Amino acid sequence: MKEANLHFDVVIVGLGKTGLSCVRYLNKQGLNIAVTDSRNEPPELSTLINEFESIPVYLGDISTKVLLAADQIILSPGVSLENKSVKQAINNGIPVIGDIELFCQKATAPIIAISGSNGKSTVTTLVAEMIRKSGLKICVGGNLGTPVLELLNESVPDVYVLELSSFQLETTFSLNAHASAVLNISPDHMDRYQSLDDYISAKNKIYSGQGLMVLNKDDDVVYSMLDDVRQTVSFSLSEPVEKDFGVIRENDEAFLCKGDKKILSQKELIIKGEHNLANALAAMALASSVNVSIDVMVATLKTFKGLEHRCQLVKKINNVSWYNDSKATNVGACIASIKGLCDLGEIILIAGGDSKGADLSGLKPVIEEHVKKVLLLGVDANKLADVIGTDSLYEFVSDMDAAVERASQLANSGNIILLAPACASLDMYKNYQQRGDDFVNAVNKLESC
Predict the structure, then answer these.
(1) Are 148 and 125 contacting, i.e. CB atoms less than 8 angstroms apart?
(2) What is the assigned CATH class of domain 8-97?
(3) Catalytic residue among 118, 178, 184, 189
(4) Contact 135, 93 (CB under 8 A)
(5) Annotated catalytic, 120?
(6) pTM listed for this prediction
(7) Is the pLDDT confidence value at 135 over 50?
(8) Which CATH topology does 312-448 take?
(9) Which of 411, 410, 432 is closest to 333 using CA atoms?
(10) Which of 94, 160, 222, 302 qualifies as a cystine partner to 216, CB 3.0-4.6 A?
């Protein structure tokens, strides 16, 4: 039951960038709003107070009393539906949605929606750049960059390009994307989901509606999401058929192609690795849904240098290449990173952090085959050591400076030193960007010594 003396049209749970965007959006509608956050000093508290001093804020715990006084709850993606206060509100029949759902109810332009365990930001950026170069007006946001509700403040574009996480999709019910893709599935966020099936179900929500389904033919879990009555396009690292995107290999050279038509050679891509080949194919499949020409796709791919902290070449020192893939926050991303670079040289891997409850065992065969030494740090370093098993393959280090220094000592000419942690960063850093910056700074200090 709702408290007689307490009532809100909407309660927003979480006061980060997304929560603040929800406050701004809903306040314009004249609604009676409250905010609650489990943190005593959430990131956007001072901004909220400066802009909306009359909006009540309940901090230090997600207030059950406040949630039960709401007609509707807007849940930030960082807060689980399994939170006890949120569950109690749901059990009391109070609707719980997120900012993506609010956006989908209002947006009038076609949406291209992208999710997956790995590669989301790279593909989102590539698709957006391809569409922009074709002359269409786009707005980009979601899990990457701008919160989606802020996009509604701009003039209506020709296309919205959205990166969507599983957390965002959980509370989304009205998405009917013009084209959508789950790029791949590997275990992630197992500290939040009760099972891998729950995580997969959340990702699968991106295919709601009637739009084009873009499917990874090489990922059995993703390809099983295929709906026979829907229009589909697939991408694969194997040779494709008809309208699909894939790879033709001739004389030790790989060509990106559509059907049997070659588009460009992998050698012409600046971004390296098989995983980035798959990202490029996925981007082309999605961009083709809004009639982007092959010439524009090729021009975009030839000049795209990749994103920071995503298999980013920092520099070469004494013929040793240093790569920053701090965004490799799960096992699948780490494996993709190793496999993508292993042909370029012997790898020394820096890994560790918060494994988020994931099964790390998939790393063992890839490390045994492709990695010379693993330098382990962070709260779950011992868990990674147990998985690797062979004492001679790993060493523990105290922090990033120590990892970079030891890697430099171990490296021979032609080696690759790769930061691909397979874990989240929050045990030691604010986010994966700060971890990557720490790695880059430590590498730069080496050269100045």
Answers:
(1) no
(2) alpha beta
(3) 189
(4) no
(5) yes
(6) 0.84
(7) yes
(8) Protein-Tyrosine Phosphatase; Chain A (3.90.190)
(9) 432
(10) 222
